[in-house]
Structures are given as C-alpha cells and as structure tokens.
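WARN no homologs supplied; continuing
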Amino acid sequence: MPVVSDATKVVSFPFRPIGFKGRKGHEITAQEIKDWYQKEKPNFIQSQSFLTIGGAAGAVIGVVLGLIGFKKDERMWKWLGGFLALVGVIATGVGKLAGINLDAVEAVNKTKSKSEKSKDGSEKENFLEELGKTTKDLNMSSGFCKHADYETDPNSFGGKYIKSVNSLVEKYGKQQITKWLEEVIVDEKLQSETFVKLKREEQENICAAILCSSLIGDGNVVEKLLGYINDNNLPESVRENCFLGLTGREVFVQKDHVITSKLMSQLNSEDSFVRIKTATSLGKIKDKKAVEALNNLLTDPVVEVTEEAAEALGKIKDPEAIRALGRFYNFGGGKRYVQGIAMTALEKDKDYATQCLIETLNRYYNNEISEYPHNESFILDKLDKDKAANYHTNILKRYCAGEINEVPNQAVSGLTDTLEEEKIIRLLKGIISESKDGRVRELLRKITYNLLRRGEDVTDRILKAIGYEIKTLLSDP
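OK structure emitted
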C-alpha cells in the first residue's frame, strides 16, 4: 500500500483555507497549503477552512434564531435555531479536526525560528570573539591605530589583518558577517554617552567591527565612516578606527584613488584631530596624488598637523614629496622643530630620499637645468654625510677629467666645510690620482681658499698630507 504524505494527500474543497487560491481543475495537496501558509503568513480568518467558517456561521445564525424563538415563545424558531446551532458546531469541529492543522505548522515554524536565532546568536558571538581577538593580537584596536600601518606585505600589521578577515569570511560567509557587523555598528551605540558606558570588551568589538566592515562592506560603508569621522560627539578611539578602516579599504579593496580624494577633502576641516588623522591615513595609503595637498599642510598652525603631514610625505615615494620636505627644512624660518620634523620625515626612507636629491643635482651637472639646486645640495649634506661626500668627490673627479667646464664650487664646499681632516685627505688623494695635473692645481687652489676658513694650521696639514703647500698653490698664476 502506497504511503500517503503531505505531497500526495489531496485536500477537498470544504477543508481548504478560505484564503488559499488553488488552480482551477487541479487537485490541491496538503503540502501546497502548508507552503502557502509559510510564505503568505495569512491571518486567523484566512487560515480557517470553508467548512469551519461555514459551521461557525451556521452556529451563530442558529443561536440568533433560538434567541428570537425564546423571545417570541415560538416553538418552531426554538427548534430551528437549536438545530442550526448544533449542525454549525458539528461542522466547525469536523472542519478543525479533519482539516490541515496549520497551528502545528506555526508551532514548528516558531520552534525552528527560535532554534535558528539561537544558532545565529551563538555564531555571532563566536565571530565577534574571533574578530576581537584578531584585532587585539595585532594591536589594531582603539589606541593603536597610528602604529598599524596597512602594507601589502603579508607579514605587516595590515597584511596579517586582511588574512584574518578573509579567513572569517570564508568560515561564516560575507553576507552573514555583514549583517552581524551592521548590528554591532549602530548609531545608538556610537553616540558618545552610550559608548563610554559600554564595557571595554563591547567598545573593542565596535572598533573591530568598524575595521572589518570597512574591508568587506559595500560602497556605502565609505560614506558612513566619513560621517563618523566628522562626528565630534564620538570618542576619538572610534573616529581613529574609522580612519584606519578607510585606509585599509583603499589599500586592499578599492585601489582606485576614490578614498584618497575623499580624505584630501578632510584636510580643510576646522577640527585639528581630523586634519592630523587624515594626514596619517594619506601617508599609509602612499598615493602620489596627495603630495600637493600634504605640502600645503606643512604651514598648518598646529604643530601636530605639520608633523603628520611631513611624515606622510616621507612615506610617499615621489621626488616632489622629497623636494617639498627639502623646502620645508630650508624655509622653516630656522626653527629647530621644523628642521627636526623635515629631517625625521626624510629619514623614513633615507636611501630613496638621497637618490632623489642626487638625481636632481645630476640634472644640473648634465646641463638639463640652468639653476643650481642649492636646496637639494644642502639637504643631501645633512641627510647622509658619507653619500654626500662620495657624490661631491665624483663631481670633482668629473671636473678634473674635463667633463665639467667650471670648478664646481658647491661640490668643493660640500667636501671641505664639514668633513673631518682625515676624510678630506683620503678623498683628495683619490681625486689627484685619477686627474690631469692642470685641472688638479686649479681645483686645489679653490679647495685651499675654502679650507683657510677653517684655519691656516688645518689647511697646511691637509695640503702637506697630499704633497702640496699653501704658498705654492696660492702663488701659482
């Protein structure tokens, strides 16, 4: 005997819910009615069968007729009313008992929903715990954002973080994580009065959620983060994480300069905190498009803003950024703090900065530019004395070899003004050994005049060490 299931059990017309509309000429199964109930969520009346509604209506009419009969003391009305009421009650009972038990379906749905919610809540807690641990382990929670540079190197802070986020996405699913993050990052929690009352773990969860959301959320997340950044009512820890989130999104997700442009617009903010953190973020993104904007920020009245702008320029590998820092050093009014800021920024990548300065100086000696770049020469001497000395020595050798027409006075000054005696002697011996005598004597006369500014005794010792005397060189025609 075949097994009868909901998919094969045919439900006749009297037992179908009045809200259900089946196809004409088509037998209706119990499963179709249950599917309709779960999908449409009908109200109480719509979910009752035709027999139940008809029976209930008959019972009501019977009661009314019975009441009329008692009032008029009419025996016929009493019997008729009682009969209809009895039939109606029986029909209602049959309709409920023989029809589909949709209440049971509802109970199953509620139990299933409760179970799913419980499971969802448990998974959400596990996800937030893992996310918070990742953020904390990498020192990327509130208070540590400035040090958490986003780099494409997988061993950097950002590289490790994006790897952890990707593993969470793979484990829980992007759609589900996005939903959980939105539940954590809610406006009510991000209001300062509410935020400070939260437990530290909850605060860190919000900060971690901001970072994660920025990496996997849709395009709207950028505007949300920009809104949080400019909300002075929010704690700085939250706003700082928003900056870090935008930075990570540009480096790992968008890579299209859109966020750079949006951040650059924040440099005009009246809030110095926004200007400081914007400069920091632009330095982490290292987008060359930000050089001009950061250069303009070097004159900001707030020292912290100037420091971050200079540091950001030092991180961006662009010759114009190096030149901007050089100008900042030389035209800072002689203020030591300005020079310190500029030099610290240049030393972020000393090799690259030195390379840019030397390339600019070479352009002059190769006759590509007419005006000597004093600024670059001065900064080179300050940034790396050894490389500067070697560079000036090579320029002097080129003069002695006839490659440069006039004595390169700047190279002479760079060699004689600050170097120790022993180093000057060693470098001059190298120049003499590779040079033509006529040009050597002309160069040494110029060097002698420069050395005399350090004293006659110093000059005499240096010249004798290389086989010359002051009197002989200065008396030459």
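The two ends are 130 Å apart (CA to CA).
OK
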